[in-house]
Structures are given as structure tokens and as C-alpha cells.
Amino acid sequence: MLAILAVWEAACRLLHVPEFLLPAPSVILKAALAMSGSEWAGHITSTLRVALEGYTVSILISLPLATMLALSPILSRTIYPILVVIHSTPIVAVAPIIVVTLGVSDLPRVVITSIITFFPLVISTATGILSTPDELVELSRSLRATRGREILQIRLPYAVPHIFSALKVSITLAVVGAVVAEFVAAERGLGYAILFATSTFKIPQAFACLVVLVMMSLILFRLVVTAQMLLFPWSLPREKRA
Amino acid sequence: MSIQVRPAITFEKVGRVFGLADGQQVTALRDLSFSIAKNEFVAIVGPSGCGKSTVLRLIAGLIPPTRGRVSIYEVAVDEPPDMVGIVFQKPTLLPWLDVKSNVTFPMRHKYGRVTEQDHKLARELLALVGLSDFASSRPDELSGGMQQRAAIARALLLDPEILLMDEPFSALDALTRDEMSFELLRIWTERPKTVVFITHSIPEAVLLADRIFVMTPRPGTIAEIIDNPLPRPRGIDTLADPVYHELTTRIRNTVFARPRAA
């Protein structure tokens, strides 16, 4: 990592790369420090809030939806094609429409983020629920347990490894969703800051925002991994357990 | 043994047809009639696809018969009965619960709560299957044989009259398999149950059972019911008994004398 930064810095200085093409790391750092702490905090919390709200909404919708899709062939036949259509629509193209429809507030941004994150969650959760061994379903039937207990005590726990692999994909998508939403309509946030900086040719500042975004994604991803390790250690391969 | 009044399990001309996805119908079982006495140990042997597991699922009330009647203590089975415990081919323990919680799981799953009484019972059962020291272990920390012991303890939790075992030792290595057979005999002696034991291993059936039902496939039916004269208690010495070898050979000939499923 440090070596890459050193090469980058050296290349920019020795080859006299113009700042608006590729700023050197030192220039990016200077631009980052030029922005005030409160300015940073405002942008970061705004983006983080949209990403996390969208992510939460997405989880709350997709887990029950996936359970219903997995267990009801009729629902699966009718709703699944709709989900595929929604997922196939380029979100960047729909985002302006959503903003017009829902008005300028956090709501359209949260909706855009949820749309981008929910598909992997639904697919993986449904796959996980259907991967429950037949014998356990038979055990449940032989005990004449209720459907609710079958889902809560057997099927959903069985889906946990699948759910977490989707949660890891979705948390980074949530940051993408938040930025896309901010590109379309926002007056704060890291996506907005990048758009604003590039429109005034402050490329180093845009790069600074980009670096912060990447770090945000990495930290959020790490948090999901840690949550799985702490809450569901059994769902990980043995050598990866804490 | 022959003067049992009320048989534990009765099949009267039972048939079972499965519809395939392409509309074809497959006769899995045809015209099965037999009865099994209380605390009798019956083994059902036959090649793959002869409908052995279907017999088990009929007794467990997991599927209904297409024809005829399956009854337990003269009551027709129309839903999964309370007095049946099942052990599957794979242990299928829940990986997120420790061994003891896996054993008490049927209680939690059926009634939504586990009492102190159940915990006590679970400890007794773990002692019975030789897993006392592993109560708080996770299933994946146990060997295949130990996992299957835990599955047997789980099946015994609700104190079933009838224990159904679907090729329970077939996923184990040969040595563990023999050991588990002796263990099962010991457990059955300590806690007599009516056992229906599905296997494709003839020696295993001869070692364990009072009677052996030999099944042939397509359509699945019982070719022969063989009384096992080997004395009890049986153990490692039984394997050296000439009767054991005679019977194994005789059953093998019955199975191979008929056209087999591919």
C-alpha cells in the first residue's frame, strides 16, 4: 500500500502530471485538510445515514419477502419476475425519476439505496432457506411443529451463512446507492461533494472525497464481517472463527 | 413373541404411488401387509430404490398411503404420531446449537419451551449414548459416529414407543459402524422400543434384528420375512456364530435371486 503511494507520488512529480488529470497523494491530502472538520463531518454523516437507512430498510423488506418467495411457489412465480425487472432497470436512469416523484428529502435517497441493495439479499436468503436439509423439515413435520417455528427455528438459521454473504455484498452497494442518489439531488454528502468539486475543477478535493468513500465502504464491510463473527461464529468455516 | 395381542405397527395391503413431474406414475410400494410387535426389532433390507424409506415415512405419518391402511396400535396413521422418534441417515444436528440443546430441540420445536425436567432428561440420554462429556460441544466438533449418537439421543427425548431408523450408520466408516451397532443393541436393551431399522447391509440386519424383511424393487414389496434365531444378548461373539453366517448368506441369495434395479 505504502509502496503504491510512493510510486504514485514519484510518478506525478517526475512526469509533471497535471493536477486535474491525476493529483499526487500529497496534493490530495492537502486538499482534504483544506476542508474544515465540520464540512467533512456533514458530508460523511449525510452519506453514511442514507447508506445505513437504505440498507436497514432493504434488510427489513428482503428477509420476509425472501421467506415467502422460497416457501410459496405461487408467490415465487408472480413476484420473482417483477424483482428481476426492477433489478435489471439501470438505477442511475431511474434515480432522477424517483427524486421527482418523491420530492427532495432523504426519502428518495433511501429508496434508491434500498432498491440497489435488496436484490442480492432476497436471492441469497431464498437460496439459504431452500438449502435446509429435507431431513430437518421432516423432523419438524414429524413433531407437528407450526410453520412459524419451522421457519424461525430451522429455516432462517440455516440461511444465515447465505444471508451474510449477501449482507457483505449489499453493504458496499449501499454506499454506491447513497452516492448515486446524491449525484441526482442533494445539497450535502460525499457524492454531492465530488460532483461540486469536479464542476469547479477542484480535482484533488474530489479525490479526497473518493478516498473517504472507499474507506467508509471498507469499514462498513469490516463491521458486517465482525458482526457475523461475534453473533454467528458457527456460520463461518472453522479456521475463520475468532 | 408370537402371542402379542395388539401389534405396534400394522400394514394392511398398503400401496404407495408417486406422481412424477412429467405426469408419469411410479409404484413405490405394492400390497404390503405385515405387523410388528411391541418392542420388536425389525430390520428392512433391500437394494436402493426398493421403497424401504417410503415404508418408514408411512409409519412416521409424513406421507399417506395411496392404498390400504397403516396403523399404530390399531389407530390409523393420518398425521405424524406422537409416539414415533426418527433417526436419519445423516445426523442433521443444528450447527448453531450445542449438543445438549440439539437433544432438547424437539421439545423446543414442538412446545416452544424446554423445562428443567427436559434438561435433566437430556443429560440422562447423553449419558446413555456415551456423550456426557460433550454436552456443550458444537456438532462440528464431534466425529460422525458421535453426531449420530447425539441424533439417537434427540430421537429418544420425547420417549417414543417406536424408533424409526433410516440407514443410520451407512455414512459411517466400517469400524465405527460395527461399534454403533453394538451401542444400539445396548441402548435397546436398556430402553426397549419397537425399532424399524432400514439398512442395505445384510450383516447389520442379521446382527441387530429379531425379524428381517427382505424387500425387492419395482414395485417395492416384501419378498420374504425371516425370523432370526440368533440368541440375545448379542455382541462381538455373535459375529463368529455359524448361524450368523448362514443367515447372512441365505438373505444375500434371496436379494440377488431376483432382478435388481439398475
Helices of chain A, by number, come to 10
Give me the strand/helix succession of chain B: EEEHEEEHHHEHEHEEH
Number of beta strands of chain B:
10
Distance between the termini of chain A: 26 Å
Overall body shape of chain B: globular
Task: Label the structural class of chain A.
Answer: mainly alpha
Strand order, sheet with most strands of chain B: 6-7-8-3-9-10
SS field, number of helical segments of chain B: 7
CATH superfamily of chain A: MetI-like
CATH class of chain A: Mainly Alpha
What is the name of the CATH architecture of chain A?
Orthogonal Bundle
How many angstroms separate the termini of chain B? Answer: 38 Å
Q: By helix and strand content of chain B, what is the structural category? A: alpha/beta
Note down, in words, how this protein is organized.
The complex is a heterodimer of chains A (242) and B (262). Chain A has helices at residues 2-14, 25-34, 37-71, 73-88, 91-102, 106-130, 134-142, 147-184, 190-199, 203-231. Chain A has 242 residues and is mostly helical. Chain A has a single domain (25-232), classed as MetI-like (MetI-like fold, Orthogonal Bundle), CATH 1.10.3720.10. In chain A, helix 8 (147-184) runs parallel beside helix 9. Chain A starts with a helix and ends in an 11-residue tail after the last helix. The model of chain A has no long low-confidence stretch (mean pLDDT 92). Chain B has 7 helices and 10 strands. Chain B has helices spanning 52-59, 99-111, 116-128, 144-156, 174-190, 202-208, 242-256, and strands at 9-19, 25-36, 41-45, 67-72, 75-76, 84-87, 162-166, 194-199, 211-216, 221-227. By secondary structure, chain B is α/β, with parallel strands linked by helices. In chain B, helix 2 (99-111) packs across helix 3 (116-128), helix 2 (99-111) packs parallel to helix 4 (144-156) and helix 6 packs across helix 7 (242-256). Chain B is globular, with a radius of gyration of 18 Å. Helices cover 33% and strands 24% of the residues of chain B. A 6-stranded mixed beta sheet of chain B has the order 6-7-8-3-9-10, with helices on both faces. A 4-stranded antiparallel beta sheet of chain B has the order 2-1-4-5, covered by helices on one side. In chain B, a hairpin with a 2-residue loop joins strand 4 (67-72) and strand 5. Chain A binds chain B through residues 133, 135-136, 138-145, 149, 153-154, 157, 160, 232, 234-235, 238, and chain B through 57, 60-62, 79-80, 84, 86, 88-90, 92, 94-96, 105-106, 108-110, 112, 138, 140.
